[in-house]
């Protein structure tokens, strides 16, 4: 007769420990791993998606993983619907095609998507659970403020760009398209809406969307296209909300620098709006064709004293126009020449041709010297780039070098 075998019962203390551990350490949420087979489907169906582009060998990526996962846990409790908020990740070594598609130049990069569309501004805030969770809450807040009385429109802050929609009803395709556009561009414009009887006076020909530009006396502009055509109204709104000449600040300097385009900058005193208007007009008149080759910016002379010192200027010299090529800074000779036809454009063309660089190092080009005048090699050293220092920090990212490019 074979002896009976009784299974060993676990120690009661161990069972209690396991139970307590399970109660206080619930199963962690899964971060969705994206690949070429699922990325479009997952992102297109997500109201908001935060995607971590990482590499396993990058120590900054390794440091972010547990923080990103814990932030996902926090947000999942507040937004349990899987399509409301998605936390996802892409292993850029395994999926270099996706990294190239989204122009990843450093690890880790956190990019925000809305209904599959990547937002221009990536997440650059603190790498903490609280900061990331707060960022997502902010992204989930309603981007459109509802107006209860048209008197509110007359008291708008006219230093901001505003888009106002007047709709018969909130539950309509027109408003849903408007809200979708506002979700994407709310960092660039103030979005407001009015409905029903309140908006009736502004709906003489149906639902209506207008743009109020900065400035007390600037005239309103009316959108004349289809209100259900997302591509049309988005393009119109983006054109109004994202100015040709943008202001550079310490908050957006890293973002602008990372675009990789040289800067054409007007340094002006904050209250000198006349010089800014002249600069904007001449950029639009002379340089609209150069939009993809250089960033047109304006900067507060007081805030950006250091770059001015690099070019041997002070706020007392403002307004000053300069180019920062990310190697050197070059000064436009005389602000009063701004309105001379073609003068500003030639300054930019001389940057692209290398003439500004050559002249700073070797004196005037031979073609600019009168016949018979001796050619002198006047070696000089242009000031180094000042705004390059606003680029992403190597203490926070693994920056991809040319040899590392995906």
Automatic annotation (TrEMBL):
Residues 362-392 are annotated as: Disordered. Residues 1-29 form the signal peptide. PANTHER family: ENDOPLASMIC RETICULUM RESIDENT PROTEIN 44 (PTHR46295). Keywords: Signal. GO terms for molecular function: protein disulfide isomerase activity. The gene is Erp44. GO terms for cellular component: endoplasmic reticulum membrane; endoplasmic reticulum-Golgi intermediate compartment. Residues 378-388 have a biased composition (Polar residues). The keyword Nucleotide-binding does not apply. It comes from the Eukaryota. Residues 18-141 form the Thioredoxin domain. It comes from Dasyornis broadbenti. This is ERP44 protein. One of its GO terms (biological process) is protein folding.
């Amino acid at each position: 007769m074979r002896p009976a075998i009784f299974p060993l019962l676990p120690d009661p203390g161990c069972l209690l420990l396991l139970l307590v551990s399970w109660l206080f350490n619930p199963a962690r949420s899964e971060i969705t791993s994206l690949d070429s087979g699922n990325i479009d489907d997952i992102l297109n169906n997500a109201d908001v998606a935060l995607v971590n582009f990482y590499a396993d060998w990058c120590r900054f990526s390794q440091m972010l993983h547990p923080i990103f996962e814990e932030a996902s846990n926090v947000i999942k409790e507040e937004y349990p619907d899987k399509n409301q908020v998605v936390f996802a990740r892409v292993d850029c070594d395994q999926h270099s095609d996706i990294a190239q598609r989204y122009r990843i130049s450093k690890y880790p990069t956190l990019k925000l998507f809305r209904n599959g569309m990547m937002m221009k501004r990536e997440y650059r805030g603190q790498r903490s659970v609280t900061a990331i969770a707060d960022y997502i809450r902010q992204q989930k807040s309603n981007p459109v403020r509802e107006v209860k009385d048209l008197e509110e429109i007359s008291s708008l802050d006219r230093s901001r760009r505003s888009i106002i929609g007047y709709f018969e009803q909130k539950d309509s395709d027109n408003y849903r398209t408007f809200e979708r556009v506002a979700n994407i561009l709310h960092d660039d414009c103030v979005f407001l809406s009015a409905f029903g009887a309140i908006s009736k006076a502004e709906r003489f020909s149906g639902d209506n969307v207008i743009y109020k530009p900065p400035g007390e006396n600037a005239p309103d502009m009316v959108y004349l296209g289809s209100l259900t055509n997302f591509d049309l109204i988005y393009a119109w709104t983006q054109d109004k909300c994202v100015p040709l000449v943008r202001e550079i600040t310490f908050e957006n300097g890293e973002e602008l620098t990372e675009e990789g385009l040289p800067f054409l900058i007007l340094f002006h005193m904050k209250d000198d709006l006349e010089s800014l208007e002249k600069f904007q007009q001449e950029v639009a008149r002379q340089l609209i064709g150069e939009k993809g080759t250089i960033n047109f910016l304006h900067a507060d002379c007081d805030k950006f004293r250091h770059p001015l010192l690099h070019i041997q200027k002070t706020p007392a010299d403002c307004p000053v126009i300069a180019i920062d090529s990310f190697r050197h800074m070059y000064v436009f000779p005389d602000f009063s020449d701004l309105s001379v036809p073609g003068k500003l454009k030639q300054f930019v063309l001389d940057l692209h041709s290398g003439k500004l660089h050559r002249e700073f190092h070797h004196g005037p080009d031979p073609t600019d010297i009168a016949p018979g005048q001796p050619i002198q090699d006047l070696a000089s050293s242009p000031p180094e780039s000042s705004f390059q220092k606003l680029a992403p920090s190597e203490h926070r990212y693994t920056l991809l070098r040319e040899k590392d490019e995906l």
